[in-house]
Amino acid sequence: LAGGCCALAAIYLMGKFYVANAGDSRAIIIRNGEIIPMSREFTPETERQRLQFLAFLKPELLGKEFTHLEFPRRIQPKELGKKMLYRDQNMNGWAYKKIEEDDLKFPLIYGEGKKARVMATIGVTRGLGDHDLRVFSSNIHIKPFLSCFPEVRVYDLTQYEHCPDDVLVLGTDGLWDVTNDKEVAGVVMEVLTSYEPNDPCRYTMVAQELVVRSRGVLKERGWRLANDKLGSGDDISVFVIPLGGPGNYT
């Protein structure tokens, strides 16, 4: 397939959960009201140094159109010779440099937050596919900067006593774009307490409620959340997996 996608997988094996993530989906465990992150998003911002380091090692991947250096904003030709803040692949903080001709090229990573893009094209830096993805109106391939390798985190279920209200939540970015970990945990507890501990549909209803609340309600100004903020415009997929059975309930 010509396109690409993120991947988030959870495997239960010999008493342990292995959660593998490549992309901007996310997983959390909610145990006795505590939130335990089981993944992190891979975006141009979180992987800035990896991307810059590759571009530094192989500048030919930039196609003479981009610079691996990062600046607080786009540089204008009139600023040649002036000093401006920048950072490279080795820097967490910022330093000053004298602006040169090469610095006028478009930055490898541009934008902030959800608007950050690699080569002004893609906002996710790990996932599957996208082998033919190119910068618009060019022959510059972006795939070399996109990794398919996931980050794997392990959770040992045998180390704790779990009750039916302890769950693993898997969600695509459509959920997390508008709902933070604490809000998700609140919805989980709210819905679970309205069902009996041995009711198997309670977990399905949590997942459904998370999707519905993240999408919002269709109004004149588009899909809106309960606080009237814009609802998620992305796809929303949610799994809610129980970590303990009715027999563990106390």
From TrEMBL:
Entries under CDD domains matching the protein: PP2Cc (cd00143)
InterPro entries noted in UniProt: PP2C (IPR015655), PPM-type-like_dom_sf (IPR036457), PPM-type_phosphatase-like_dom (IPR001932)
Lineage: Eukaryota, Metazoa, Chordata, Craniata, Vertebrata
Underlying gene: Ppm1j
Domain of life of the source: Eukaryota
Molecular-function GO terms, alphabetical: [pyruvate dehydrogenase (acetyl-transferring)]-phosphatase activity
Organism: Columbina picui
Pfam families, per the entry: PP2C
PROSITE patterns xrefs: PPM_2
UniProt-recorded name of the protein: PPM1J phosphatase
GO CC term (a single one): mitochondrion
Residue ranges of every copy of the PPM-type phosphatase domain listed in the record: 1-243
